[in-house]
Amino acid sequence: MKANAKQTKPSPHVQKKRRKRREEILHAALRAFRIKGYHATTLDDIADHLGVRKTALYHYFPDKETILYECHRESLGEIKRLLTEAQELESATERLAHVIREHVRVMTDTLEGSPLAFEVPALSGRRQSQVIAARDRYERELRQIIDDGIKKKEFRQVDSKLAAFAILGAINWIARWYQPEGPLQGAELGSQFADYLVGGLSCR
Amino acid sequence: MKANAKQTKPSPHVQKKRRKRREEILHAALRAFRIKGYHATTLDDIADHLGVRKTALYHYFPDKETILYECHRESLGEIKRLLTEAQELESATERLAHVIREHVRVMTDTLEGSPLAFEVPALSGRRQSQVIAARDRYERELRQIIDDGIKKKEFRQVDSKLAAFAILGAINWIARWYQPEGPLQGAELGSQFADYLVGGLSCR
What we know:
The structure is a homodimer. By secondary structure, chain A is mainly alpha-helical. Chain A has a single domain, classed as Tetracycline Repressor, domain 2, CATH 1.10.357.10. Chain A has helices at residues 2-8, 12-36, 43-50, 54-57, 64-87, 92-110, 125-151, 160-172, 186-199. The relative contact order of chain A is 0.12.
């Protein structure tokens, strides 16, 4: 019984170390996915990025698909957070700009330019449904901000569904051209995208 | 000699019939790619869409990759044409709106919403380089139109490279959500995208 308790509850220090390691694995995986694509990436590639053997990964994740799923969860968690932050802002203009700016930062910093949005079909049934449901919720909230801006006459009369898809396309496509080592950093890219994509809706 | 001449030059009627059949195969392939994705699509799937046997396709294309390549060539040919048309227009605003409108139409009508831009890595070396070179030329011409608009004070001072990538992302992403059977048709979608994406650059 004592041994069992020990096994289920590691010390805070060990827990912290494990959390850190887990994050390092996810980030090594994101880098590998960006460079080789998800399908071509092996667990050996991910281990290579960390300078460890493949077997070391099995303490944290049973397989590559679980790693992909956890990367999605991390990114969707950040999306949820940025939507909550946006709700604190007064105008639809500010809310939309915040969402665009922060979503770009998730793409460039959290995901390191990895094309996660393109890899949803690689997830198995239940996990795929979960990710799609979270993505659909995000799309609806984005449309809601745009509709609200139209109602309050901050934005022109547009089809909010199309505008939301155009915004998501512009942001998701970043994975196709972004170079983490390049001169353009996430914050600057986010500001310029927000400026352009909110600008197209504004009543000026 | 006579037989040889006959073999190398079919009658105009036969030529026309072959061209038509060739186009039908490309369009059946695009539909299949949209529904199942390029990698999961087999030559049997493409033949099924046409109601013929797989062997009938071999008279036209040796393999699936060649079909993908020819779909790219068809779409790049249209892009080239729409850029030539745009050059006839007076202002950068009109040129950019034309390019966006017509590129959206290529996505929805010529490509039937098929995610061709996502399948470039599936092409073999020489073909992949050709398609990437053509795509790079297109990106440069798009930037050129935006830079011209900035110079002529039609557009605000923006990073034309980022704006071009945002536009291409919005358009390429259409393949991820467009339903050819849905209520929204290509022309209407193209107009709304042009309105939104040119609007974000305009000095109003």
